[in-house]
Amino acid sequence: MARSSKAKEPEELPRADQAPGAPHPRETLQLFGQEKAEQSFLDAFNSGRLHHGWLLTGPLGIGKATLAWRIARFLLATPPAEDGLFGAPPPATSMQVDPEHPVSHRIQALAEPGLAPISRSYNDKGKLRDQIVVDDIRGLNRFFGLSSADGGRRVVIVDAADDMNVSAANALLKMLEEPPARTTILLISHQPSRLLPTIRSRCRTLRLAPLTAEDMQVALAQAGAELPAQTDHLAALSAGSVGAALRLINLGGLRIYSELVQIAGSMPRLDRQRALALAEAAAQRGAAEKFELLLNLVEILLARLAYCGAAGQAPFPEAAEGEAQVLSRLSPNTQKARAWADLAAEASARARHGQAVNLDPASLVLDTVFKMQETAER
């Protein structure tokens, strides 16, 4: 398969387009909860006027990449209608491709010549870049110049398009403006507002929705995740994102959030021992991922506090045991809701700044907890 410069990565290195602890999207053959988006693509395919650029949008971890690889597998395994020897084939009713199909095997082995996946690559020092750079996109010129694969189709997957720097985005824009024949470019975007308006205007958008609790449980089982007993807590914290749920499971997120709720429940007096223990855990060596998750969970707690005061009731279902009682006590009215919402914005900005200047994680956590205590006292 034609690939970006990332093709030289050693297999043991983490991939930018794969969530930690989860199978790669190319390995996930079933997609749950996104029937509407899949049918929209099938309708366009069956119309015979398939757009060359597609923008797959929605929250992180809800199946956009899985759908992109599913589309690629389907297109590369389905010859164009005009190549048929016995007239036009019947309309496709599913994008499911037999796992034993040669295209499935080639994609699984990263050996499909008609597919080019683009994601953040490794630099000369073996470090994963924080952006998709222009050389990653320019590598597609050689891919487009190769002889067409069986069926004549080519598919490009950019995951995530949000990661492109300005030069890479401009290079891709030129390809969208003058797309090669029989080429489909699939852009995965968690925040489409970050993309160039001209890129968005040249793509057809497929919006994916957060999964229901039932669909998410089935998807997590497919990913081999060990479901916790508190599946309702997991559903509340992950907001319909399988990726977020896997991260919570792998990093002990339910326990961390429960501890945050217990600390909030001690306010306004504040259980300082618990707060210090939480801060010290965030500062441990090798705890960068858990620290990142902790900051995210603080944002979720503050958002749920603001919602409780504004809506006059705690969000349902609870995300931790006893959460509803804590939220209702700390945010009983709209005035408190505004105070918590203001703190949420301030805490998010402070967290980003603290990470940018390498502020001590323990200090950053304690500072946020003390700000919560002040808000609870007012």
What does this structure look like?
It is a single chain. The protein has 378 residues and is an alpha/beta fold. It has 2 domains: 5-207, 3-Layer(aba) Sandwich (Rossmann fold), CATH 3.40.50; 252-377. Helix content is 49%, strand content 7%. It has 15 helices and 5 strands. It has a 5-stranded parallel beta sheet, with helices on both faces. Strand 2, helix 4 and strand 3 (154-159) form a beta-alpha-beta unit. Helix 12 runs antiparallel to helix 14 (334-356) and helix 14 packs antiparallel against helix 15.
Q: What is the compact description of this entry?
A:
The chain is an alpha/beta fold and 378 residues long.
Please state the CA-atom Rg, rounded to the nearest Å: 23 Å
Largest sheet: 5 strands, parallel
Mean pLDDT over the residues: 89
Shape: elongated
Widest sheet: strand order? 2-3-4-1-5
Percent in helix: 40-55%
- Low-pLDDT parts are 1-11
Can you count the beta strands?
Answer: 5
Q: Which structural class matches the secondary elements?
A: alpha/beta
Number of domains: 2
CATH superfamily of the largest domain: P-loop containing nucleotide triphosphate hydrolases
CATH class identity of the largest domain:
Alpha Beta
Report the β-strand fraction as a percent range.
5-15%
* Through-space gap between termini: 61 Å
CATH topology of the largest domain: Rossmann fold
Please write the string of helix (H) and strand (E) elements: HEHHEHEHEHEHHHHHHHHH
How many helices does DSSP assign?
Answer: 15
Which second-level CATH architecture of the largest domain applies?
Answer: 3-Layer(aba) Sandwich
